[in-house]
Amino acid sequence: MAVTTLDAPAEAKTLSLRLSPGLRSASPVLVLLVLGFLAPLVTVAAYAFATPKSFDVFRTFTLANFAAIVDPANTVWTSFAWSLLFAFITVALLAIVAYPIAYGLNRVFGRFSGLVSVLFVFPLFVSENVRLYGWVLFFIKNGVLDGAMKWLGLGAGPEVLYTPGIILFGMAYVYLPFMLFPMTLGIAMIPRDLVDAARDLGASRLMIWREVELPLAMPGILIGMLLTFVLAAGAIAEAKILGGQSVIMIAQDIEVAFTYAQNWPLGSALALILVAIVSGLALFVLSRLDLDRILGRR
Amino acid sequence: MDSIGQARTRAFIRLWTALVLVAIYLPILCGALAGLSKGRYFGFPVRAFSLEWWQKTVDSFEIHTLVQNSLLIALIVTVVSVFFAFFGALAFARYDWKGRRLFQKVLLLPVFFPQPVLGLALLLWFNALGISPSWQTAVVAHLVWIVPVVTLVIAIQVYSFDPTLEEAAADLGASRLFILREVTLPILWPGIWSGALFAFLLSWGNFPLSLYTAGVDSTIPKWLYSKMVAGYTPMVPALGTMSTLAAAALLLGGGAVLAIVRRRQA
């Protein structure tokens, strides 16, 4: 008995020595992710299978919450549909808006590109509520747009607030940096001499873009698309602040289930479905990318 | 022909970028305008400016508590996340080890995750552990999201790091701790510094995680949201503007230090 207790620490010591330097360095982060990310997700999964409107997690197992979600009498699927549709449109909009800027950061702005990047990073540090509320002040009746148009004698401003369109606008606005920076890294991966070679061989600019630049920049673009899709699918503030409940997003249904309705198992089941869609997509795309190349290892 | 086309493309890119930047800062300016207007309700063009609402915000005891909470959370998050992320980044980019590819992907998952859902999941988990939410649990929640981001920021610096420098030091008889202090840390310093800046600023502005995990302890973004939903006062845009200015000042100051660090290295 005494021998085994003495042996145990010695064995643990040789084991820790055998850990590779990489695993040893990774361990603090891994512990944090297990306790702060994996464990909460397991808890959500456990609640998703608990009796509806109860708090007795781990004691019961039922599919009632999922049955309630797919019940045709329940309209929660419309929130899923809206969220996924809006996420798709946001990704498409941002790909178009961000590409010229990402290209410019690599090829056009020269020594100013550092400054321009900082200008695009900064909004990330301002709470999105504050920025979205600024748009309310811009678009509201007697706000900046309406007031300025009346003052100039152009009549009343357009009433765009509390419509689905403004929610899309808000989402594109908030998630722009998440598309822009991966895209910029992607475009940085295009070797310049390859473009020059293509030009020397007589390729047109459209052809160079389609056949050389776009495929080489694709890993970064894909990361940007994935990131913005996932974040937009879980968006909530845009619909609440700008959209005025004209569209109910799935994250809002989840929140309502947790707060007002006090139905944690239903909220967990909804969250679990969203997580499955989102992380399934994330893992699928990430498994096809070489992160070392994108982030700069030669 | 081609060069004319290229010049046009460049002009278009400059114009487009300028337009998008105007759109990005427009709402922030609108908020600043509302906080500086006299009167309870905002109207444009602004009839009279006054510092009344700024004064009320600065004097408010409630706001002092919010600033303290936000500051405390951000400071702790910065220190802890830089420590975690420094080693995380070495594992991400410096060492070749068996689990590296998997580690790289697992690390990205919290970043690629809707934050409101993460906040609610953490709330359930704290509840299951019997911990009531407070600013301390908000620190944990911020860490789950911010440590991976900071790890990526530092990892980009690690990629440009030449591992043979460490090996040369080891061959010359330097101890592990000595190598870390004299070789590894100085080279990675710009990455660590920008990582710390990111950690602080992201925690300072974070709303969805604080909303669910800070319990009764409110933060600046949380208070702003609750007042936007009900009980609006012009203190909302005033505090929003002040918080934005504080972040900008920190970014400028941090950027200046970073530029000095880089120059000294060059």
Q: Care to describe what's here?
A:
Chain B: One of its GO terms (cellular component) is plasma membrane. Chain B: Belongs to the binding-protein-dependent transport system permease family. CysTW subfamily. The complex is a heterodimer of chains A (298) and B (266). Chain A is mainly α. Helix content of chain A is 73%, strand content 0%. Chain A has a single domain (72-294), classed as MetI-like fold (Orthogonal Bundle), CATH 1.10.3720. Chain B folds into two domains: 1-49, no CATH class; 53-265, Orthogonal Bundle (MetI-like fold), CATH 1.10.3720. Chain B is 80% helix and 0% strand. The longest helix of chain B has 35 residues, at 2-36. Chain B is globular, with a radius of gyration of 23 Å. The model of chain B has no long low-confidence stretch (mean pLDDT 91). The chains are: A mainly alpha (298), B mainly alpha (266). The interface between A and B is large, with 92 and 97 residues.
List the defining traits of the structure above.
heterodimer, A: 298 residues, mainly alpha, MetI-like fold, 14 helices, 73% helix, 0% strand, disordered N terminus, B: 266 residues, 2 domains, 80% helix, globular, transmembrane helix (chain B), transmembrane (chain B), ABC transporter permease (chain B), transport (chain B)
